[in-house]
Here is the input.
Amino acid sequence: MSQVRDEIEARGKPQLGAVDAVTELVVTDEVEGQGDEVTAGATVTAHYVGVSASTGAQFDASWDRGAPISFPLDGVIRGWSEGLLGMKVGGRRNLVIPGDMAYGANPPPGAGIAPNETLVFTVDLVKVD
Here is the structure.
């Protein structure tokens, strides 16, 4: 894992901006990974940046905390649980997630996310368990 993490760290934090709202999940691989593949029910470790599609304002980034996070795929928003399937360790993937696959009408208080907001994430996959 340390070699993959070093490669991801060397890429650095991605820069994201505003994009058009979408009605379906849009998945684009920026870098194809070569390691283990994400499957349903997996626990993954990833670095990410999330921004509001309408403003381009960042609302969260593991990069700013200095470490990737680990989470079960079934414990995150639907856009992540579906959008990360098939991704391989070492890859960088862009997700444009419609509001109904993100937080819908009830975004987390204080997160800077509007109700039904389209969200944009860039995810660097470090590990799959």
In short: The helical segments are 2-11, 62-65, 78-83.
